[in-house]
């Protein structure tokens, strides 16, 4: 991997939707050699996939995770303090079983 490959990777990490012609122009190559470099980086597994990063609030995506906590302390004080701490995180809702 050389300097041009690293430039290509940097550009694609910032915006994977860039057209090959735009990437080529920005790194100082013509379209075909740039496309070949991208293909080679994909074949070698350097580029594993291209993804879209979403704004979770705009698409109203929520993740639900169930977590079980184990502790060596089974006191009411420990449970009270633990509950206080996790309530400080707005994305956490808790229940005790």
Tell me about this structure.
- There is one protein chain.
- With 97 residues, this protein is an all-alpha fold.
- The protein has a domain at 3-43: Winged helix-like DNA-binding domain superfamily/Winged helix DNA-binding domain (Arc Repressor Mutant, subunit A).
- Helices cover 45% and strands 0% of the residues.
- It is built from 4 helices and no strands.
- It has helices spanning 3-14, 20-27, 31-43, 76-86.
- Helix 2 crosses helix 3 (31-43).
- The chain is elongated, with a radius of gyration of 24 Å.
- The protein starts with a helix and ends in an 11-residue tail after the last helix.
- The mean pLDDT is 88.
What's the short story on this structure?
With about 100 residues, this protein is an all-alpha fold. Helix content is about 45%, strand content about 0%.
How are the elements arranged and paired?
Layout lengths: L2 H12 L5 H8 L3 H13 L32 H11 L11
Task: For this entry, give a set of tags.
Arc Repressor Mutant, subunit A, mainly alpha
* Radius of gyration based on Cα positions: 24 Å
Distance between the termini: 54 Å
What structural category characterises the helix and strand content?
mainly alpha
How many individual β-strands?
0
Helix and strand sequence: HHHH
Helicity, in percent? 40-55%
Biggest sheet overview: none
Indicate the CATH topology of the domain at 3-43: Arc Repressor Mutant, subunit A
Global shape: elongated
Q: What is the number of helices?
A: 4
Query: What is the residue-mean pLDDT, rounded to a whole number?
Result: 88
Which architecture of the domain at 3-43 would the CATH scheme give at its second level? Answer: Orthogonal Bundle
Low-confidence stretches: none
CATH superfamily of the domain at 3-43: Winged helix-like DNA-binding domain superfamily/Winged helix DNA-binding domain
CATH C-level label of the domain at 3-43: Mainly Alpha
Beta-strand share of residues: under 5%
